[in-house]
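hey
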């Protein structure tokens, strides 16, 4: 299943996410995903595993043109020249000469002038053919408005925290208004059960309503959530390093949720963010230096 971005580029709707995947496990995960049928992998400079993603793609035996590679520029590399160099670092680690989608990882409103300069560098990379599409991540409507007022090209994608317990309808609406594709990170609610992110949280994977829908279709809760994203026109990038789970997450094209089931999942939204607030400055984290190689 493919989605068409606002510049006409097509992107597989479902991709493998590698956030928090240890480098030593990432190559095998990427290789397993491509063997299972995935053709889209999402990584980031800040994840420290771009090199291993590239190695997994090479080991798959697939031609470069068959795999949609998405990565992200980290805040410490914002600025015009810095972001042009971030492309060099990313492509060098991945072992490729172009990227399919390059996005800014955070709005970083405490230094938004550098965010704007970074996005202008993305526009240059797009014009030069060094990337096929550009976008943003974790941008709220007010960040999008600021960006659109000062740049020329509408982002193709906005990657945000989005799962049944946190659906961000205002962000989805703003994206749709501007022709931006919404892409879900933590699409099956992994952020609700990551250790250290709040032990009192209820895991969306254990929600009884989702379990009921899963039982109806003979599927797993994660598969139901991924189907929910796809039927509502979003991209989703579930993360796993387990080959069986990776394959299971891709096995979502042989059933369909009813309008009632989609609405029931929508109704689970709590409005509570589980990941970091994009408006909060995180100076120590933002200062993290992305190595050259």
């Amino acid at each position: 299943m493919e989605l068409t971005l606002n510049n006409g580029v097509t992107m597989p709707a479902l991709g493998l996410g590698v956030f928090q995947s240890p480098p030593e496990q990432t190559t095998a995960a990427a290789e397993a995903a491509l063997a299972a049928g995935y053709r889209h992998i999402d990584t980031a400079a800040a994840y420290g595993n771009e090199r291993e993603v590239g190695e997994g793609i090479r080991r798959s035996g697939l031609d470069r043109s068959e795999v949609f590679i998405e990565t992200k520029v980290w805040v410490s590399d914002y600025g015009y020249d810095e972001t042009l160099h971030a492309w060099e670092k990313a492509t060098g680690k991945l072992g490729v000469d172009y990227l399919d989608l390059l996005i800014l990882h955070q709005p970083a409103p405490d230094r938004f002038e550098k965010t704007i300069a970074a996005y202008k560098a993305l526009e240059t990379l797009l014009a030069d053919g060094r990337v096929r599409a550009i976008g943003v991540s974790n941008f709220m409507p007010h960040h999008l408005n600021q960006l659109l007022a000062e740049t020329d090209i509408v982002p193709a994608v906005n990657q945000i925290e989005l799962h049944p317990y946190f659906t961000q309808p205002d962000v989805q609406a703003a994206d749709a208004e501007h022709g931006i594709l919404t892409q879900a990170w933590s699409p099956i609610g992994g952020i609700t059960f990551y250790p250290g992110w709040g032990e009192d949280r209820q895991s969306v994977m254990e929600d009884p309503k989702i379990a009921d829908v899963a039982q109806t279709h003979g599927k797993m809760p994660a598969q139901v959530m991924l189907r929910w994203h796809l039927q509502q026109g979003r991209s989703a990038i579930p993360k796993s390093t387990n080959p069986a789970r990776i394959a299971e997450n891709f096995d979502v094209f042989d059933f369909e949720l009813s309008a009632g089931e989609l609405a029931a999942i929508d109704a689970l939204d709590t409005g509570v963010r589980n990941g970091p607030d994009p408006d909060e400055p995180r100076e120590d984290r933002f200062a993290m230096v992305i190595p050259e190689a």
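Residues 77 and 86 are 6 Å apart (CA to CA). The longest strand covers residues 68-73.
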